[in-house]
Amino acid sequence: MDESKSETSQTVYAVSRAILQANWEKLDNLLDPDFTYTGDGYHFSKDEYIGFMQDLRGAFSNFEMILEKTITENDFVSIRFTSKVVNTGSFMGSPANQKNLTITGIFQRKVANGKVLQEWQTTDLLGTMSQIGFGATFGYAVFVTGFKLKQKPIRRKPNDFLHINGNVSNFDMLKAKEKNTYIKNYLKKN
Questions:
Q1: What is the pTM of this model?
Q2: Within a domain: residue 2?
Q3: Residues 72, 43: Cα–Cα separation, whole Å
Q4: Is 173 helix (H, G, I), strand (E, B) or coil?
Q5: How many domains in the chain?
């Protein structure tokens, strides 16, 4: 990650690092209790956001995020990003397909008192859905409506979610079927 030196930027980068590392406790500490997320047809509270990121991180392996352009102005940081991932788990109704995906977008985070208070994001959903394999028009239409096709509500999982023997890289090495089994068993216990 190309990181600027301001405290505000460092806080924003730390949120992205916590998600990439599946460090849910750190992510929780970096987000304000009143944190809200708005983007790509969703509006999340802090716990819903963490739950969504846990689901996202569980569905994709070899997560790499390139922060291509960062603009910091007072308490706002805007970042254009490219994420490179492998689709190794089901996500939002779409089964794993083992494809390498490149996901691009822009997010803006507002920082107050050393914590991220708000995030807004827009992602190239059409490009993402095309790579996953949905028909472009159908996939885009479904994705922008938030996959509200009898989807279970997003819930936050405990901080050890995706950590096998204390390490998320052990989870990343699992095959898609093993990942889905791990997640199902984990959720039954918790």
A1: 0.86
A2: no
A3: 24
A4: coil
A5: 1
100: CB partners within 8 A, 6+ apart: 84, 85, 86
Q: What's the pLDDT score for residue 136?
A: 47
Query: Which residues of the chain are under the pLDDT cut of 50?
Result: 1-3, 136-137
Residue 142 lies in a domain: yes
In the block, tokens 């993402």 appear at 128
| Rg of the chain on CA atoms, in Å | 16
What is the pLDDT at residue 150?
53
CATH number at residue 109: 3.10.450.50
In a domain, 110, yes or no: yes
- Residue 2: what pLDDT? 43
pLDDT at 24: 97
Structural domain for 27, as ranges: 7-189
Q: How far apart are CA 46 and CA 154, in angstroms?
A: 11
Residue 1 inside a domain? The answer is no
Q: What 3-state class would DSSP assign to 91?
A: strand
Predicted confidence at residue 135, as pLDDT, reads 58
